[in-house]
């Protein structure tokens, strides 16, 4: 009751924002009190998203910090890169709790940020304040935090697939190759040739090869867990589907462990974390098996012929890779059960 | 509390069954106590549907009426055509409430059933007992019923688009043409050439032209509402997508009414029924705008040039066209609010 | 030999243009001598379309009429609406043969053009000169013409499905309802929300209901064939696929004919026209069955219950609905066999 | 003229067979004289594939060796695994030229074949006789051969991406990791859960991880080229599209070469081979850019951070990965230009 909080969603006309709305609408402890958009302020949200007709009848607020601070306790920033850099500090200064779904505050090194994002990072004081909310790994940092930087989609699916074995020291951390594949919704609602239907349908291609800005975010997590610098090879591909990410991860073990022992290592690491599910021997997760839900499913194949370990990890990029994990971080921040409002069963088929 | 009931789902390895599970898992008044399958009895459900791993760990029960009657208060039959004919009577005799999602008990005329389904109908005593659960139209029949025959997917989307204007007597009931388009999941999980990926992807075609078994079901509803026999033209097409049905309906008005008056007629007819949403002038619903939800969205275009009225109606075939409406019927049957456990926001995109 | 001609393609960076290139590259009597684009002039075509790497190494020419008149004998205009209005007259005055794939010169009535296209039509002298190249219907007008206006995609598939029975006087011409469905490539390469992948994939919707600018083009053809004004109801839908159009056409017969007699009527009408194929009783064409080819396939269902005739007609919108029919018109214009260079077997699956 | 030959296609009701038909119908030196199917013998081919109506009106022949030997000079075997083992020897003994598109004769080691295909290999005398027709690599073996074993789809796209650099000795042959992704048509027309539309659409998953039977075929090619045993890691994934394969290949260079030098190495290796196209720096091929054509397009990224080289290679699995390369082998076998009848421009979009 007293735990009930009021939430504002900035960037409500984007895919991350609208997925936050879907998640929060049925969250028992949260009330959406403001939907915010710089581009469509003053119009009803259902004009941008007719599926919300008669569900959310509110008009969109402008990005007006005092107004939002007045209407809400927590604000979710589901904004394009660069916007949070400007507005998150103001929101924080106004006393709001902030959960930033963008990439602006994820990297702790300003230099690395600038190299990969090709723009200057936010004020260091606020970057320092941001808690990186990879819930199953660094979730202990979240309770009581005011400011969460929510992990990216590729970093979530990839880091969850790698952290237990990296932490255990069982693999050569110089050997990591991540071949990742994403649905198109990850590119957002902004128009572009690589999201144009006739170009993407019945097509498959790689993009940003060795250049994806999520690379240093994954390396930062793995380095933190490993206690030493980790550099990896990372390739991203576009799959002709809307939602879902799958990372196929190749690593070279340096200690002799059976596939079952590896599976057991992961089971123990994620014990008590309901959103990570480990597959049985010979079973590999499909993206559809987590569609619309906050799960991350992981499978393994240790190849006797080459000695390499293949790890396959999947999430729904808009849920566990964005809105769902943001709500999970809100739950942890508030001291609620981390599954509160997140018990979405995958929609199958 | 006392309202809590135990539910069994027969046909849990099909798409209708698994969607019932998704809906019922978060229903506050229902507990799933048995998942039933004739073909996979004894195996864990998650073996058939890995997306349910750690969500439902139960093994599938066989179609054993005493067992089900012992474990459950209500049983949902999401079985292939012909199966309910056999088992629904036994379930009813055992005192279970039954909600049949198949087509076996929908038609009141045994002769019509046999002509369109090419098989004999069930025992007439049970057919008589079946309440046809088109919730927004015949929902008043449902409270207290023991046996619900849940409408088909095409009949739901089409009837909801036609009933108000047919009932008002505003159109020539001999003029109705329904051009319907469905996603592939309506065909179920059984294999076939017209559900084979490489045949369906990047393809669009009509099937069962003037022969679809849902034709008499729609005509039965419209005739009942009109108070006279209605015969219509009905064509079904397969869309290369998984979920969603859209019916484009053409009718000839016989009384002079503006498009706004027609819209108002529908608004009044569906007043207080939260799952039907009427679109504004010039707006037409897309199937994605109801994806995963129990909504039926309807739009209109009255053509000044030809005088014809075009009605466009959409649902998610697995939700409002099957599992969702079944749960809605359970709610009505039990005297609960009809939206209980059904507040799924459409998943967009 | 002496029949060999040189062709220029204006709008080579659009889907219509690039499909013309695919068709003409293997045409035995044609040499592509200029690829033209206003937006990308000076760059290699393969930069816009990497699939043409090492096939066409030419740089794009600007829209320079003297240059084109110097390099080519015939010019194909695959340009956005409004461009041909400006440049076709200049091309014609320069002595070029012109085949216009846009809608600018299709309608003979300036008033109708302006009402539906919301822009003024071209100079009437040039509109008069334009021969409407619906090859199987008005093909006799084409030999020797200098200027062809190539039919639109919806008009081609729909008119070919209707002309024989309209001409025969077997149906009530006030009863025609056309429910058409198109793949997304018909909308071209220009970006927009209704061609954005995440909005279109796993979605189906109607657009421009009773407002599509192809409506008067179809009516013009039917009126010409019927010898009286024909007005019809026309709805267009977007299918989540790249290529293909299917029209489901509903008409009311006014003379008693069997389905076989109707089929025979069509067979006779299209005798000697190899690109129209009539399906057997109970068989309906799928868009994939003409994918990549110049065929139009047509099937029929005469419903005994309602007396209505359903006609189903399919084409590949980019081939028979654009580039292929344009080449067919070139063949007819030049007195070549109409299949020259057009023997593309549908690519299946 | 005298070079004209008669061709039979066994397995004409499968996707490989029907693609062979599409290719051979416009081949200037070939006449299809028999289409053969064990399952549908006696029925018209167009009953199985309506897109061939009025194109091929022949009825399917049974698998009758004397009949085929009488009607044809060359026979293409596009049959399920195991069938060629039985019939290829008989065809060869009857004096036919045989091009086997199946996997039965690709592996030279009977033991390896049995381990990966889980069935005994064909008679060793015939295996020895089979020339492995990877045209751009081993094409010199083909002229004059009677019996060609046509490479698999994954082996073609992967081997063409690897052979030049393996042959040059520039990489550690123990470091090769191949992450491959295929459209669904590669699984053929036979029904199955992993080709069921609702299971595959809007889904992405790995299959046969470290177990795909194409693994030893690629290793055989690489070992032959390297002059030593090569063992690699190979993962296959299913993409929700019909056609196309992309292999992302990771290798560790052992000699210092720039990305441009690597590109130049490939250009030289494939000089004079028109079906392999090398992409410029920073450009990576998409599967759609080869759709329907016999091209293999290859791009490169040498990562300065990790030192690894990423090679991306694409083909149309049904063309260069099956029917197209089979025709290319026929051309080489007969001493014709290897592009004869194969100048299909990719169909885009």
TrEMBL record, chains A, B, C, D:
Listed under catalytic activity are: N-acetyl-L-glutamate 5-semialdehyde + phosphate + NADP(+) = N-acetyl-L-glutamyl 5-phosphate + NADPH + H(+)
Q: Which residues form a coiled coil?
A: none
Q: Which residues form the Semialdehyde dehydrogenase NAD-binding domain?
A: 6-145
What biological-process terms (Gene Ontology) are attached?
A: L-arginine biosynthetic process
What InterPro entries does this protein's entry cite? AGPR, AGPR_AS, AGPR_dimerisation_dom, AGPR_type-1, NAD(P)-bd_dom_sf, Semialdehyde_DH_NAD-bd
Q: Name one GO molecular function term.
A: NAD binding
The cross-references to PANTHER family, in alphabetical order and at most eight, read: N-ACETYL-GAMMA-GLUTAMYL-PHOSPHATE REDUCTASE, CHLOROPLASTIC-RELATED (PTHR32338:SF10), N-ACETYL-GAMMA-GLUTAMYL-PHOSPHATE REDUCTASE, CHLOROPLASTIC-RELATED-RELATED (PTHR32338)
Name of the protein in question: N-acetyl-gamma-glutamyl-phosphate reductase
Protein's organism: Paenibacillus thalictri
Organism phylogeny: Bacteria, Bacillati, Bacillota, Bacilli, Bacillales
């Amino acid at each position: 009751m007293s735990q009930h909080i009021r939430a504002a969603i900035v960037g409500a006309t984007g895919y991350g924002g609208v997925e936050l709305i879907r998640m929060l609408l049925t969250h028992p402890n949260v009330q959406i009190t403001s939907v915010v958009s710089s581009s469509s302020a003053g119009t009803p949200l259902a004009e941008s998203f007719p599926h919300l007709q008669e569900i959310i009848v509110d008009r969109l607020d402008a990005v007006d910090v005092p107004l939002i601070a007045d209407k809400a306790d927590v604000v979710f920033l589901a904004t394009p890169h660069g916007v949070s850099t400007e507005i998150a500090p103001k929101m924080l200064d106004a006393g709001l709790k902030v959960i930033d779904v963008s990439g602006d505050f994820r990297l702790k090194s300003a230099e690395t940020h600038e190299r990969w994002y090709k723009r200057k990072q936010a004020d260091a004081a606020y970057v320092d304040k941001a808690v990186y909310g990879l819930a199953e790994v660094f979730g202990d940092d979240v309770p009581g935090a005011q400011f969460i930087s929510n992990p990216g989609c590729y970093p979530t699916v990839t880091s969850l697939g790698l952290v237990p074995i990296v932490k255990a020291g069982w693999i050569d951390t110089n050997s990591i190759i991540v071949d990742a594949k994403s649905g198109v919704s990850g590119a957002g609602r902004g128009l572009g040739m690589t999201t144009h239907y006739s170009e993407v349908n019945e097509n498959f291609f790689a993009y940003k090869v060795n250049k994806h800005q999520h690379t240093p975010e994954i390396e930062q997590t793995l380095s933190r867990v490993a206690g030493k610098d980790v550099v990896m090879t990372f390739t991203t591909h576009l799959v002709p589907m809307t939602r879902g990410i799958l990372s196929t991860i190749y690593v070279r073990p340096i200690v002799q462990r059976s596939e079952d022992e590896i599976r057991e290592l992961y089971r123990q690491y994620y014990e008590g974390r309901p959103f990570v599910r480990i597959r049985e021997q010979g079973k590999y997760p499909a993206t559809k098996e987590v569609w619309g839900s906050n799960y991350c499913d992981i499978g393994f194949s240790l190849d006797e012929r080459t000695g390499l370990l293949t790890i396959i990890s999947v999430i729904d990029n808009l849920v566990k890779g964005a809105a769902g994990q943001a709500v999970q971080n809100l739950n942890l921040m508030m001291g609620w059960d981390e599954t509160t409002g997140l018990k979405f069963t995958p929609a199958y088929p």
